[in-house]
Structure formats: C-alpha cells, structure tokens
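User: Could you write out the 3D structure of this protein bound to zinc ion? I've included everything you need below.
Assistant: Certainly. Input first, then the structure.
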Amino acid sequence: MKNTLIDKILDLIAPHHCYYCGRLGSGWCEGCCQSYLPRPKIKIYKNNKLISREIFLGERDGILMKIVDDYKFNERKDVHAMLLEMLLQSLSPIISEDGRDFCLVPLPTNPNHIRIRGFDHISLIGRKLAKALHIDFNDKILVRAKNTTQRGKTAQERRKQAKKAYRVAREINDDKIYILFDDIKTTGSTLESAAKLLHIAGAGEIWVVYILQQK
Ligand SMILES: [Zn+2]
C-alpha cells in the first residue's frame, strides 16, 4: 500500500500503465480491453427464497484483485471506469434479455471509509452501472444501522455483526427485482443479511452482484 508523500506525488505526475500488458497510457489499453474482459460467473439458485441469482466478475486474485485494491486502498479512483465497464459488459445481456424491472441497491459503505477515500466507492460504480443499464438505482433503501467495520474480523463476528448492520428505510416494490451491489463477497453474511431485510420488507426477488469473491 502506498503511504508516503513521495509515492502520492509520483502517482499524480506519473502516467498509468495498462494493468494487463504494462503499456503506458491508461489502466486498460485499447487492445487489452478487448482481450481481457472477464467472463462473469453466474450462480442461479432455484430453491433459495432469499437470493435467486448471484453474478460476479471473478475470484479475488491476480490482476482483478490488484485493480480493486488500487481502487479501494491506493487512491486510484480512476479505475472505477474500468470496473464499471467490466460489470456493464457482464450484466447488460442478462438484464436486457430478462426484461423485468430492476432496482440496484448499493450496500452502504462505512462512513469512516468514505471520509478517508473522499467518495463512496460502491455507490459511485453502482449509480453509473444502473444508469448505463437503464434500471433504477436507490441508495436510500438500505441504510446503516450502526457504524461498524468488517475488515479483520472473524467469520463468526462478521456474521453476528452483519445481522444488525443495516435497516430498510424505504418502501419495497414487490414487482421489482432488487439487485444488491457490493465490491467483495467474503463470507457472504453481509449480502445475505441485507437480502433477508429486503425479503422481510416485501421484496419478491433478490439478486446479488459483486466484483470479487474472496475464497
Ligand atoms: Zn494493455
């Protein structure tokens, strides 16, 4: 992780390298954005009342992990465009073929992390993704009940904490399919508890979309 002032200054003046081929320019050069588009992983659950579909870009390793880590921890807000494009290419055929009404709901980010980054990294991508997919976006439905952080906690602690982390603050339309959106799925407890809250509030069908799966 970058932390010195020199690193920060170098980052500002140095042009970026393509994550895939290393060529100077953008994080994703023209050639590589054709050849290295991640193929989405899709899980369909027929007998799960809570979550009926899960879509994500890949495991948390390799270049994808580097991109997400840079976005979250290394002040590379610019790579949101890359992640957005990957998500859009993955979701667009699925959403347009389905044809039903969707509403994308970002998982609320810890306010301390928003303050440190200067922006909400989930909402930023979620809002643009929903717009590009021509579906609703609503970041008022699910709100934080408490200021809690999950990093570094044990699975059991996370599960316990996830249960009381959020609450539903807006009315749910049971005709819509709600898509819960997050960056990383670790134990799945956060997404599951959020899905449970939407389900209790009346959501008929819930999908979850995230960028990476942490094994
Ligand atoms: Zn390249």
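The first strand starts at residue 16 and ends at 17.
User: Perfect, thank you.
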